[in-house]
Amino acid sequence: MSNYDPTVPMLRQLLALSILGRLEEAGFVQEPPKRKLVKPEMAEKIFSRIVGEATDGMKVMVYTTVIGDGDTMPYEVRLAGSDAIRVSAVYVTKDGETRGLTSDKRVNRTGDIDDIVDRMVARMRDAWRSCKTGARCYSCNAPKFATKNGKQVCAEICWKSDEEKARDSAAFKYRKRRRHWGSRW
Ligand SMILES: [Zn+2]
Asked: Distance from the CA of 95 to the CA of which of 5, 81, 85, 160 falls in 20 to 30 A?
């Protein structure tokens, strides 16, 4: 029973160990970093657990705010008071794209350490349930996800051909690049 105070390094370490301990108990594993990092110990640890069969493509993700490696640097939660632990349910498409099945659920790091971790576990169970019970596509059985305008559509975008999808993704990247240049020049 300790009240979390982010200004106390020992409490940041205690919270980090509680988070990692509960994730391990719940069968979650750390996601490997997407690219090689110069200081891997400074990267936020992301944990996930596959829901159902690996081929179903659904995962519960936990963005822990935990950094450190337990060796050269102790595990601790990030100092920044504004960020929260985030939990979401995702679907990885056959093309390797990750789509959120639910909006990120935030767990604020305030109050008793055990309570913070319990709230995180509750959000993990919610995300698990939405993977299990969420709407499925009638034609391909992939889960549905909400688009930006709130429409529920098949996460595999299975009504489009591969050529159409490739064209859309190229157009999207082009627009993104233009926006980037636009802000710079
Ligand atoms: Zn579909």
From this structure: 85
User: pTM to 2 decimals?
Assistant: 0.86
Distance (angstroms) between ligand 1 centre and the Cα of 87 equals 25
* CA 155–ligand 1 middle distance (angstroms): 7
Q: pLDDT by residue (tens digit) across 149-184?
A: 888 999 999 988 888 888 887 887 777 766 655 554
Residue 103 tokens, joined: 């909006």
Distances (CA, A) of 115 to 38, 109, 111: 34, 9, 7
Residue-wise pLDDT for 51-104, tens only, equals 988 888 999 999 999 999 999 999 999 986 667 999 999 999 998 889 999 888
Dist. CA 148 → ligand 1 center (Å): 18
Alpha-helical runs (H) found in the chain: 9-25, 113-133, 162-184
Cα 147 to ligand 1 centre (Å): 14
- Residue 85 Cα to ligand 1 midpoint, Å, equals 31
Q: Alpha-carbon distance 53 to 95, whole Å?
A: 17
Q: 127-141 as b/e, with b when 16 or more CB fall inside 10 Å?
A: bbebbeebeebeeee
pLDDT at residue 185 tops 50: no
- Which residues have beta carbons under 5 A from ligand 1 (an ion)? 137, 140, 142, 154, 156, 158
